[in-house]
Amino acid sequence: MKESWQRNLVVLWFGTFMTGIGSSLIAPFISLYISTLGNYSKTELNIWSGLVFSSTFIVLAIVSPLWGRLADQKGRKLMLLRASLGMAVVISLMAFVTVAWQLLILRMLLGAFSGFISNSMALMASSAPKEKSGSVLSLLTTGSVAGTLIGPIVGGILVNFTGYRRVFSVTGIIMFLVFFLALFFVKETFKPIEKKDMLSASEVWKVIAHPSVIWGMFFATLITQMTNQSINPVLSLYVQELMHGQGNITFMAGIVAAAPGIVTLIAAPFLGRLGDQVGQRKILGFGLIFSFIVFSVTATTTNIWFLIVMRLLVGISDAAILPSVQAILAKESPQAVTGRIFSYNQSAQSIGAFAGPLLGSAIAGFIDYRYVFVGSAILVVFNLINYFSHTKELAKHS
User: Fold this and answer.
1) What number of other Cβ atoms are within 10 A of residue 194's Cβ?
2) How crowded is residue 163: how many other Cβ atoms within 10 Å of its Cβ?
3) Which terminus has fewer CB within 10 Å in the chain: N or C?
4) Where is the Major facilitator superfamily (MFS) profile domain (predicted)?
């Protein structure tokens, strides 16, 4: 007989899997979709792509702490329902836009309703045994990664057969399914907390044993998201350039976008279990060093197949970095403030996902696509400095 947290893990894995599919079906092709909404120069298209892609994340960064406080007060399941239903409605409306600014507004609204995956993480972090947090959160990560892996490929096929707008309709249907999955199958034992009994923002940090570790993880999340997302808004344009405008560009762009997930899906459970044994700090350090090497080499890309191989290798660093950060946050966060700590991390992730595409599209527009990866490698250096300066407390217990 499975315990309740184990049953929730199964349900939430499928929920995050479907959310991953829904959120990634159209993402690699946003710049191509925008190009159908008006006549833009290369620089204008790059900037519009960066704005539309990033707008979701800056709004999410602002609202996440508010949702996190509500999650600690009312429960995480309510946040799962709020996120999935809101995303279903907003994404469905994207099929009807006629100009770029309408898509921009809807992407901003999407940010206000997002957070299914982060709340799934918070629910599992607060309910699963602490000694299993690394393997549990790594396994849950594979759900969203698997969905993100499949999404761009399916999206590329759908675009070819149905056009861009139908993809938004399909995505909306998927998110409605996620809503019903959470409504009927996720079980949470949660006693609502009166507003007067909630810890203030300053009190949250007083109950945390090692605040510097938490801040270090937030920064690690922010920089990792910047490096991962920087190429995304112009990815299809870069693929188009590497392929010299010949061949099935949308499908190959989907392959490139999905490539990191292939290895992450395989490596994350193994690295999660290894982290529980040897310490998550060591796995995190390995991931950061490896990502620096990969981004540096990717900057030398001259053909599409080399790019695919290097993006596959990004999956190894992602499998090491992201679950390790979440496991460290889970272990360092008292249950009473888990929702807010994970929401703060969501804000850091969103700021990185906002800044990364803007930086990447600016570099691509004014210099060249491959220099986006040079910028990513430089950012990883700052992340390594953060790692060595903010995880000293973890080293003492490793």
Assistant:
1) 7
2) 12
3) N
4) 8-394
Expressed in angstroms, the distance from the first to the final Cα of the chain is 34
Please state the rounded mean pLDDT for residues 229-258.
Answer: 80
Residue type, 367: I
Query: Which amino acid makes up residue 363?
Result: I
Of 77 and 73, more confident = 77
Count the alpha carbons within 13 Å of 111 in the hemisphere toward its beta carbon: 26
Q: CA-CA distance, 168 to 164, in Å (whole number)? A: 7
Distance between CA atoms of 268 and 273, rounded to whole angstroms? 9
20 touches 146 (CB < 8 A): yes
Q: What is the mean pLDDT of residues 65-79?
A: 82
38: phi then psi, degrees, rounded to nearest 5: 175, 175
Q: Is the pTM of this model over 0.70?
A: yes
Residue 296 structure tokens = 């540096």
Distances in Å between the Cα of 254 and the Cα atoms of 2, 159, 208, 251, 311 are 37, 11, 42, 5, 12
The answer to whether 174 and 154 are in contact (CB under 8 A) is no
Dihedrals φ, ψ of 234, to 5°?
-115, 15
Q: What is the pLDDT of residue 2?
A: 61
Q: DSSP label at 196? A: G
Q: Which of 33, 271, 309, 2 is nearest to 137 (CA)?
A: 271
